Structures are given as structure tokens and as C-alpha cells.
Amino acid sequence: MATQHSRAAARFMIAPSVLLLLGWMLIPLGMTIYFSLLRYNLLMPGNNPFVGFENYSYFLSDPTFLTAMLNTLLLVGGVLLITTVGGILLALLIDQPIWGQGIVRILVIAPFFVMPTVSALVWKNMFMNPVNGLFAWVADLMGLQPYDFLASAPLLSIIGMVSWTWLPFATLILLTALQSLDSEQLEAAEMDGAGPVSRFFHIMLPHLARAITVVILIQTIFHLSIFAEILVTTNGGPGVASTNLTYLVYAESLLRFDVGTGSAGGVVAIILANIVAIFLMRMIGKNLDA
Amino acid sequence: MARAVTPRRKAINSAVAWTLAILIFFPIFWTVLTSFKTEAQAIADPPLFFNFDWTLENYVTVQERSNYFRHFWNSVVISVGSTLLGVIIAVPAAWAMAFVPGKQTKNVLMWMLSTKMLPPVGVLVPIYLIFRNVGLLDTRTGLVIVLTLINLPIIVWMLYTYFREIPGEILEAARMDGATLRSEILYVLTPMAVPGIASTVLLNIILAWNEAFWTLNLTAANAAPLTAFIASYSSPEGLFYAKLSAASTMAIAPILIMGWFSQKQLVRGLTFGAVK
């Protein structure tokens, strides 16, 4: 049914989306790369001389960069570990015959719809606050000293907050995948005497492999860019203890107005994200053929 | 996968699942509950559960002191505006790719997806400077533009996966019956496409409503949606838990309800069709 005529019409229909996205990608990207090669500070007006890779060597040799990289990896890794393992367990549990499955599902998915600034401020003040927070009250009940979460373990606290938001996401996706599993296969395995553990490892886990990969990759893309949670709780501190790459670039560009260094950091962030993106794209691309 | 289990097993599973679900939901419950307390009751030791005088005072105060509904309205305009604009641009593209697929269709789709992988911080500086120069900083128009562009790939993808499920034979049958292209689109395809478009709109309003990178960086007092407004509570004066809770409750309630209705679409939309 695809004639010459309809092909031309199709191209015409696709063009706006493609051109807009092309512009959105190429113009700012080109500018970021260009700025990253200039000495360019908004506080120092005047001409912005070309300095080659000076911004990169400055950004990459700054000890804060190493801390930020490490924090980024810990943040992404920590959240992934909690949400993936927790998500598998929760999905397996909810998939069992239980009373009120629909309501349980609704309660579990809810945190995913809470905007990051609300979630971060609620956790920071009403739970983690060492004086008035609920955790302090619970600690007091058990005869423990209250713990100042965001001052003493800022990164871990942020990992906790972000995991609360994303555990529902992982659970929902894995639960959806589990429900598409052919129950006859499981019953057959059970008849053949396979115990719950071997059923999990030999039937369920292979079936979930694809969903797990998708959960990990998509979350990685989002978590590399965690920003709001850090901004409203710790501002990257104390010191730089909870500064990730995204926050560091933000601080360089919009707090210190160093456009050159900020842009160099932006390019580094893009390269990092692209490494993950390549794997994700392959996964999704395979699915298109199916 | 409903398999028979013993009643005892079912009771234990249910108890564990309910306990975990309630724990996970608790922060939301606690926020809503606190929004009805006075500031003193909000920090009472031991914490008060239901034994306090319920008040709506915080909701009134939040509105009076900070013109809450202005920010609420900003959120509505930005999320609905960017979603509708995105859908208008994306429907023809998704349509063409689903019904007139060419050799490049897959590549175009994958390329669109790849733009979504661009970390926002990588283009923060240029967008900020462009917006500053053309006067789009702290305007709803500016945010509508940015959110349309960042969500466009998801919108195209979701629509594409829905449109692809519309059987082509129906079109041929309609044509055999002498339908013109116009009536074909109007009476045959549109009714079949509406549910998919509606789901796409729903999911994207949710995503745009909660977007908190661009909204925080590109707005100040004027165009700040709720994400940015709530962030102002990070440096409060005096007691504020009850007011924070009231502002938060109003910010999350509409989207929570929409979210519960769109669980299935969420899976499809956020995994780009890789998990259904």
C-alpha cells in the first residue's frame, strides 16, 4: 500500500518531529562543545578567548571531579541494587495469590508519582530531621541516639530517598513481566519436582532477564541526572560529600558562572551517558524486530 | 499466574505484602495527615495519628502567603501545554511510521530515542544562555518549549506502539467499501487511535508535572510550577511541617490519581514498548 505518493506524504508527516529534535540536539550540543573550548565566565565580561582543552584539564584534574564521579557511581549503583533486588522480591510476592492484590499494587506504585522536590523535602524534614523527624522518635523509643542522616551520611540518605521513588517503578515493570509468564510452564516444572528455588532460577529469572535489563538501563539514564533531590536537601554537601556530576556541572555553570568549565563538565556527562545509552538502544532495537 | 496455594500460605503472603505496601505508602499517608494538623501538632512528641483537631488552616495559609494557585496553574499550563503540543507534532510522525513504514523507519525511531539519552546537564548552559538572551527565562512559554522537546521522543514512541497495533486490513476493507481517504481517517482510524492517544497524553502530563531539572533551573518567582515552588521550602522560616505537607498534598494528589489510572501505559511508555 506504500506508493510513491504516500511515501512522500509520510516523509512530510515525520519531518516536523525530526527537525525539532535535530535542532534540540545539535544546536545546544554544538554550543556546549564550543563553550567548553573558551575561557568564558559570566562574571568577567569581555572577549572569550579560545583556550583549547584548558577547561577539560582544569575540570578533570579538580579533586572535586573525582569525588563527584565516585558519588555518581555510588548513587547510581546503590539505587540500582536496592530497586532491582527489592523490585524482584516485591514483584514475586505481589504476583502470589494474596488478598487485595489490586490495593497492594496501588499502594506500592504510589511513590513513583511523587515529584522529586516533595519526596526529598518530606524525607529530609519529617523523617530524617534529627530533632523532629519520625526516625529520631523511633530511635528514641529504642533507646538509641538520634542520627543526623543528611549531615552524617548524606549520600546514603539520598540513595534511600531516590530508591523510595524508583522501587515502585522496578516493581511495576517486573510484575508486568512476571504476569506474562506462562503458568503451564511453571506447573509442569512443579510436577517434575522442581522446588521453588530452582523454579525461580531456571524459569522465572530467565523470563525476567529482559525486563531486569530494561529496568537497570532506564534507571541508569535517569539516575545519572539526579539533581532536584540533592539541590533541596544538601546542596551537594556537607562540603562536596553528596555532589554528583550533574550537580557539579550545575554549580560550575550557574553558581560560579564559569560557563567554560561547566560546559567541559557537560561534555564529560554526555560521554558517560552515551556509554550507557548504547547498551539500552541495542536492547530496545532488538525488540523492534520482534 | 494464579496457582492454588494453601490458605495458610495465602494468609502469610498477604500479611507480608500488606505490611510492606503500607510501609512504602506511609510517607505519603503521613504527609497528607500532617497537612491537617497545626504546626505544633505536626512536631508533637509522640507523633499524633488521629487524635488531633483536624484543621484546614494550612491550606488557607499556603494560598494566602504564597499565592499557591498561581504555581498550581503554572504546573497545569506547562504540563498540559507541552503534552498537547507534543502530541500534535508527534501524531502525524507516529502515524506515518506505523502505516507507511520505510527502510529508515527503525533508524529514525532509534535516533529519536537517542536524543532522550542526552543528559540535561550537558545542554543546560546553552539553553540557559539562549533563554536569557531571548527573554524566555522564567516564562511558561519557555518551559512548554523545553518540556515538549524532551518528551517528544517518548510521545512519538508510545503513539507508534499503539498505532502499530491497529490492523491494516481494516483500512483495506474500508477502502473496498469505497471509503475516501478523509472518511477513512475520520471514521475508521481515529476511533481506534483515541485510546492510545489518551494514554499517551496521560503519561506525559505525569512526566511533565514532575519534571524537576528544567523547571528548577529555568524559573524564578514568576513561572515556577509546583516542583520549583515546593523547593522554596528547603530554606524555610520557623515551623513549617504542616504547611509543607499541605502544599505537597495538593501538588501530588492530582498526579497520584492520574498515575493509578495509567499503570499499564506507564510500563509501556517508560520502557519504550520493551515490556508490555
Automatic annotation (TrEMBL), chain A:
Q: Where is the ABC transmembrane type-1 domain?
A: 69-280
Question: Which InterPro entries does the entry mention?
Answer: MetI-like (IPR000515), MetI-like_sf (IPR035906)
- Looking at the UniProt record for this protein, which Gene Ontology cellular component terms does it annotate, in alphabetical order? plasma membrane
Name the Gene Ontology biological process terms.
transmembrane transport
Spans traversing the lipid bilayer: 12-37, 68-94, 106-123, 149-175, 208-228, 264-284
Main site of residence?
membrane
Which CDD domains does this chain map to? Answer: TM_PBP2 (cd06261)
| Identification of the protein by name | Sorbitol ABC transporter membrane protein /mannitol ABC transporter membrane protein
Tagged with keyword Zinc: no
Family designation? Belongs to the binding-protein-dependent transport system permease family.
Q: Which organism is it from?
A: Roseivivax sediminis
Q: Does the keyword NAD apply?
A: no
TrEMBL record, chain B:
Q: Which residues cross the membrane?
A: 12-33, 72-96, 108-131, 143-163, 184-207, 213-233, 240-261
Keyword annotations for this protein, in alphabetical order, are: Cell membrane, Membrane, Transmembrane, Transmembrane helix, Transport
The protein's organism comes out as Roseivivax sediminis
Show the PROSITE patterns listed in the entry: ABC_TM1 (PS50928)
Q: Which residues form the ABC transmembrane type-1 domain?
A: 72-262
Family per record: Belongs to the binding-protein-dependent transport system permease family.
This protein is called: Sorbitol ABC transporter membrane protein /mannitol ABC transporter membrane protein
Q: Name one GO biological process term.
A: transmembrane transport
Instruction: Provide the protein's localization.
Output: Cell membrane
UniProt membrane topology term: Multi-pass membrane protein
One GO cellular component term of this record is: plasma membrane
